[in-house]
Amino acid sequence: xxxxxxxxxxxxxxxxxxxxxxxxxxxxxxxxxxxxxxxxxxxxxxxxxxxxxxxxxxxxxxxxxxxxxxxxxxxxxxxxxxxxxxxxxxxxxxxxxxxxxxxxxxxxxxxxxxxxxxxxxxxxxxxxxxxxxxxxxxxxxxxxxxxxxxxxxxxxxxxxxxxxxxxxxxxxxxxxxxxxxxxxxxxxxxxxxxxxxxxxxxxxxxxxxxxxxxxxxxxxxxxxxxxxxxxxxxxxxxxxxxxxxxxxxxxxxxxxxxxxxxxxxxxxxxxxxxxxxxxxxxxxxxxxxxxxxxxxxxxxxxxxxxxxxxxxxxxxxxxxxxxxxxxxxxxxxxxxxxxxxxxxxxxxxxxxxxxxxxxxxxxxxxxxxxxxxxxxxxxxxxxxxxxxxxxxxxxxxxxxxxxxxxxxxxxxxxxxxxxxxxxxxxxxxxxxxxxxxxxxxxxxxxxxxxxxxxxxxx
Length: 458
Description:
There is one protein chain. The protein is an alpha+beta fold. The protein has helices at residues 3-18, 114-123, 153-161, 169-177, 210-218, 290-293, 311-321, 346-358, 382-390, 397-423, 428-457; strands at 39-44, 47-56, 62-67, 73-77, 83-84, 100-102, 130-137, 141-148, 151-152, 188-195, 203-208, 241-245, 252-261, 266-271, 277-281, 285-287, 299-304, 326-333, 338-343, 364-366, 369-372, 375-377. 32% of the residues lie in helices and 27% in strands. The strands form five sheets. Strands 4-3-2-1-5 form a five-stranded antiparallel sheet. A five-stranded mixed barrel has the order 10-11-17-19-18. It starts with a helix and ends with a helix.
């Protein structure tokens, strides 16, 4: 309210306190029936105020009202002592207070601690402020900037609540990226795949070099036997670096607090050196030591340059390269990730396929069941049961012969691929053509062998 509004509001208080219909012995008090959005008179601390009814309880015992001239929202009992019909002469005065919002300050946030809210209220407890109105809406009110003695209150409150401000997914990624290991366009590194969440086509890798190895060694001091006096957090603060216990291996790692659930006493944690998330109990979170607080995050968020992988494609890529080294070449630096080209050692894939083909088909024995070719066979007597548990099924010789043949073919093709790097001195197209020919040869042999097996089965 402005100064003149404050004068009017005080004058209304004096007038209403003297009005005959608002006296304790008034005979017409039983005529008023409260309804939502109706204007009424409410008594608070011995004085009568003009109010609008916002809500009525289901048992019609209380009403939540807005004090038109002072801005408060307070519940009152629906009794003549506390709520009555507003006399007609008090309808003509406009409201003395205006609904306003501090421009740039969020209207609500359940994560802000009560102590911080108290500091904000203290900043808004002066008698007079200078006001700049940036915008106004008939429903939502005005957007204003408050200042006193040249100090902008909006900025001070924003600074207080900034650590608790909720961020969008994009803002979160941009904020986290600034803490990751700094790489440059043209850099090429040996790396391991770390994690992916499937929300988009990005994934996290761990770069393998001397710097990251040194940082990893420094992380050893986070474990319990290295920190006898750890400082636990009663309620972790969002957007802060902490140390949290990972549920799978029970070890402690650096982590970023994304959100907190005070009722469940747990926080959603982002493990900064790996790129994965997990809910962690407050009792398993403590203050991050200064010795590792400023070290770069080892989990590097990347995406393929000029390529977008669907979720299934990313899963296939992950299975192909999991637990094996890859090489990444930095092509771009985006605001939330690195654009990379991934180089794979194709012999790893051949070794995996060779291992699959070389594994003989045999029964799998568990408890008293014999599982063969996805059919469960129950042994008929004790001697048969014992033999099924102790004796593996004898492999079919024709299948073993085919597998030995395929193993030799894989060895031949793999040897040809290895020597290809040294023999071909032509263009990249020639190398690729030869590579394609070898792969077509390999696939045709596998298909032919599968066809022969099907014929033998028939």
